[in-house]
Design brief:
Blueprint (H helix, E strand, L loop, with lengths): L3 H17 L4 E4 H17 L9 E5 L9 H11 L4 E3 L2 E7 L17 E10 L6 H5 L4 E2 L4 H4 L4 E6 L2 E6 L1 H11 L6 H17 L15 H10 L2 H11 L3 H12 L2
Parallel strand pairs: 1-8, 2-5, 5-6
Antiparallel strand pairs: 1-2, 3-4, 4-5, 7-8
Helix pairs in contact: 2-7, 6-7, 7-9, 7-10, 9-10
Amino acid sequence: MYKEFETRTSYQYLQKVIDSLNEPISLLGGWAVFFHVNGRFEKAQGRPYLGSRDIDLGFTLGKDPTGSALAQAIKALKEKLGFKPLSFRLMKDIHTETGEEIKKGEMVPAHFIFPMYVDLIVDVIPKNFKETFGFNPIDEPLLKFVFEKGEHTFLKEFGKKLLVPKPELLLAMKINSLPNRDREHKRIKDICDIFALAWYSGLNPENAGLHRYVSNKCLKDSSVLISKEDCLKAGAQLGHDAQELRRAFDAILSH
């Protein structure tokens, strides 16, 4: 699905990013799924679970956005690691042959450039956010269950404490995002992550209580979106039969 260089580089930068931030660090997206499922997946498949290209971090701003963990993270990522703002995310270009950061003004053919992204995601966007930070972030309302209701797991990785949504909450986030995926590789990766969370995280999908997080309409829309071809493509990545994926999705999305 993703090139080995891309996921390896993302993992290397994940460690650098975590090293540069104050704990606890809220990790979302594909790497959060990885840490939930990799132990069981690797035991069953004899290989690590799929990595991610991007790094997704979650934040709550509280009453003082300028003193928040988000503000501290932006400063650290820009000043310590040299990431540059690009819309709602931070990024840097990596040379696919050398693995080195491409410096400003350096001329490199496009096919040798891997854009490394860190996505900054908040639970609620305050009215003055853009005036304070200079950009509009991604918002994920389900993060309130992490920060307000404590629906998370603490993991120790790279010598730091990571705050990761519980598998059922992460599963809901993935399902919620699926209808908005306009790129095929993003949709297939989400489908892989949904199945992996249901199959390899220790979660019982039928008792996951997804209705607490997402509407019946969202569950139904996501079920319709997952085609036979999607199951074939995702199954090829996961080492599972497409029919096995379909049965799992029907169980997940009908409860």
